[in-house]
Amino acid sequence: MPEKVSERAGLAISFALASAVVLATMDAFTKLLVRDYPVLMVGWARFGVMAVLYGVISCRRFGWQMFRPRRMRAQCVRAAAVVFATLAFYEGLIVLPLAECIAIVFVAPILTALISGRYLDERVAAATWVALAGSFLGVLLIVRPGGELFSWAALFPLTAAVGLAVYQVTTRVVSRVDDPRVTMFFSSIVVFAAFSLLLPLGFAVPRSGTDLGLMLLVGMLGAAGQLMLTFAFRYAQAAVVASVGYSAIVAAVVIGWLIFGHIPDGWSLLGMAVIASFGIVLVKNGEKA
């Protein structure tokens, strides 16, 4: 039995690590695209591809039920949070380095704990407030006064973190009654519809087959990363998966160096380490509670 548990934990960690690398790679390619295309266009392409892939995966099992989740209102709030967080994050990617932008967004799990305490009646431990203070210290180390990243642009990933926190809280709500595959498809199709409505405000014809392929690849990587994360949660406790998820910051540093030639300075690396450390302490504390 212990050997089987260890095997499942190993699978969960493998899926979580793979998801972190895949999603960080998706963000890097997204950064390449948003430098030349409107964020609405990139988001539209991404969630269109994801909706198609999730639909193909789930249609035989769920049929029209995919369009009728049980927690419709919460599902719509969840989708709205995705639109909000995506637009804010993409705007941040335009002006901020990849690793720093992703690291700031990782304040979201701590905000999730606070929002859950307010709206889901979950206990907010003192450690949560300590972790929140520590994470914002990490943010200040990254966008410190006098540093080249100290500008209004840092508000974009912080705003994205708020949207992501709302997304995570509503995910907890809908997961109690709706199948994850229904949730993934419904969110993608609603977000795609929202971006389609906004698309006239920011449409641009792909200038090359390479750019079109990159847009499709971003959608496929997003779908693959989320599916891997779903499998990770199937094989291990949420705290374990969440802890491993912070490896995305390390992946972003490496990928940012490989693609953009950017290496964070010492203060930024320290800030990333502080954010990740306090986040891991928080999820471990939640695992013991």
Protein model, in words:
By secondary structure, the protein is mostly helical. Helices cover 80% and strands 0% of the residues. The chain has twelve helices and no strands. The relative contact order is 0.21. The protein has one domain. Helix 1 packs antiparallel against helix 9 and helix 1 runs parallel beside helix 11.
Gist?
The protein has one domain.
Number of helices: 12
Rg, Cα atoms, Å? 19 Å
How much helix, percentage-wise, in residues? Answer: over 70%
Q: What sort of overall outline do the alpha carbons produce when their principal axes are compared? A: globular
Describe how the helices and strands are arranged.
Elements: H1 2-34, H2 39-62, H3 72-95, H4 98-105, H5 108-119, H6 126-142, H7 155-175, H8 180-198, H9 209-235, H10 238-245, H11 247-260, H12 266-288
Helix pairs in contact: 1-3, 1-9, 1-10, 1-11, 2-8, 2-9, 3-7, 3-8, 4-7, 4-11, 5-6, 5-7, 6-12, 10-12
